[in-house]
Amino acid sequence: xxxxxxxxxxxxxxxxxxxxxxxxxxxxxxxxxxxxxxxxxxxxxxxxxxxxxxxxxxxxxxxxxxxxxxxxxxxxxxxxxxxxxxxxxxxxxxxxxxxxxxxxxxxxxxxxxxxxxxxxxxxxxxxxxxxxxxxxxxxxxxxxxxxxxxxxxxxxxxxxxxxxxxxxxxxxxxxxxxxxxxxxxxxxxxxxxxxxxxxxxxxxxxxxxxxxxxxxxxxxxxxxxxxxxxxxxxxxxxxxxxxxxx
Length: 246
Description:
Layout: E1 10-17, H1 23-30, E2 35-42, H2 49-56, H3 59-68, E3 73-76, H4 79-82, H5 86-100, E4 104-106, H6 107-117, E5 122-127, H7 131-143, E6 147-153, H8 159-163, H9 167-176, E7 184-187, H10 198-205, E8 209-211, H11 212-223
Parallel strand pairs: 1-2, 1-3, 3-4, 5-6, 5-7, 7-8
Helix pairs in contact: 3-5, 6-11, 9-10
């Protein structure tokens, strides 16, 4: 008789951009037994300012749908939107909680907690994004007390194109922009194949690597007292206690 995992320990409700085909496989691979991600989509294919703001306008609808599935927590899982500004990220979290009656957090909140938990103050930021998204993300990180030593974006404006990049792209980019002052390397974006590169880069550069999907999963598990995890996704998962994000 097959054993099917329905999430007896935690049902994780996640909103992702509609054009993202990378987040779900990575999230499912990282979750331990008894934790299952239930996914819904909000329209977003590109990364222009207008598209990012438009995605944020529809969080109540997604939150209510996930509440129907009786999830334990709702995650707004888009890095570019949740780091658009500190104010927008907080507003999205509040609106989701009001609409669903459930606790909520965003990718940005998980990222801040992950970097603080690793005591990473100086970072190298690597993204697939266009320049305007990178600059907003740098401002967000600096607002929370991090120093961005180097920021590199690949100038890609669509989820579909981002998802086609191989893991080797991120290994090569990290090596090209390695910095002995860096406390960590942050590969931003839920829609890129960065999970497979985490431990390769960590071994090559001897620094922790943070990715959007990895940080979100870690933050969700640790906030619900779940200390086990799937192996192979970096040093972050050795940290058992999330850091405050305020």
